[in-house]
Design brief:
mainly alpha; DNA polymerase, domain 1; hpI Integrase, Chain A; 16 helices; CB; chromosome partition; Tyrosine recombinase XerC; Integrase-like_cat_sf
Length: about 300
């Protein structure tokens, strides 16, 4: 299993969190097989697993009330492991290909309304007692909404990259996303203004090395994403926003608002860095739900009970 984990990181270029999740999934599976078959499985035992063995593992996860999304990912991890064994001639098991993925509930990204997004970004500047921290949080949230970044992508930006784009007054930035894939994301003037305001007030910026992270915590170290999540949680409570208001909801809002303004799916896919268009197509469900809600509240016949 160690070779497979190393392959996932080196060859597949999976992120650290993805690799850690795959490792947990396989430890869970191997532990189940050991208990189910009466001992730690070797390669011959793995090759001899039947469809009923895999189903028993899935049934145990269901009894433990593990989320279907978690089980679907775990099954994907196990399939990847068996494909790895097969391609290297270590073990072949056709039964795993017959196991169906648990049916998942259809999820719709939870975006903020344009008004709620505007209120959130306006309030963040007044939330922190220390000016530079307020400027930092404003810059991060403006970047998430204005460029559609994942929080990990925003926090991975280094000083040299951001200072270079501010110095050259660049209107776009290269972002390295999941799987090491790069994409070019346009930057609105509001985003670069917020980044420059934070840079000018951050007391640690002058001493930071070019390769150091651009976003810095209160004690001078790289900013932890939990700090941003807690800041958004405070703002959510202050403004009475939905519980779905998280840093990632700003990325959803970026995509949903672009789509609502006439943006095409292919362009939004490129901006978000989605590998598959089907992932981006979830935002059409959000927009359809919004239109249906407007119809129900505005159309005379929709309001009429007679």
């Amino acid at each position: 299993m160690v070779s497979w984990i190393e392959w996932m990181g080196a060859e597949r270029r999976a992120g650290d969190k993805t690799v850690a999740a795959y490792r947990r999934d396989m430890h869970d599976f191997i532990a189940f097989v050991a208990g189910h078959r009466g001992g730690p499985p070797d390669l011959d035992a793995l090759a001899g697993l039947r469809q009923t063995d895999f189903r028993a593992w899935l049934a145990r996860r269901a009894r433990d009330k593990l989320a279907r999304t978690s089980t679907a990912r775990a099954l994907s991890s196990v399939r990847s492991f068996f494909r790895f064994l097969d391609r290297r001639g270590l073990a072949v098991n056709a039964a795993i290909t017959l196991v169906r993925t648990p049916k998942l509930p259809k999820s719709v990204p939870k975006a903020l309304s344009i008004g709620d997004t505007r209120d959130l970004l306006a309030e963040v500047d007044a939330d922190a007692a220390i000016e530079w921290i307020a400027r930092r949080d404003t810059a991060i949230l403006t970047l998430l909404y204005g460029a559609g970044l994942r929080i990990a992508e925003a926090l991975s930006l280094d000083k040299r990259t951001v200072e270079g784009l501010l110095r050259s007054r660049a209107t776009a930035i290269a972002i390295t996303g999941k799987g090491g894939k790069q994409r070019i994301v346009p930057l609105l003037p509001a985003v670069t203004t917020a980044l420059a305001a934070y840079r000018a007030t951050c007391p640690f910026m002058a001493a930071a090395a070019p390769h150091d992270r651009f976003f810095i915590g209160a004690r001078g170290a790289s900013l932890d994403p939990g700090v941003v999540q807690r800041a958004v949680r405070r703002l959510r409570l202050q403004l009475g926003l939905p519980e779905s208001t998280t840093p990632h909801a700003l990325r959803h809002s970026f995509a949903t608002h672009l789509l609502g303004a006439g943006g095409d799916l292919r362009t939004i896919q490129e901006l978000l860095g989605h590998a598959s268009l089907s992932t981006t197509q979830r935002y059409t469900d959000v927009d359809a739900a919004r239109l249906a809600a407007i119809y129900r509240t505005a159309h005379p016949r929709a309001r009429s009970r007679g």
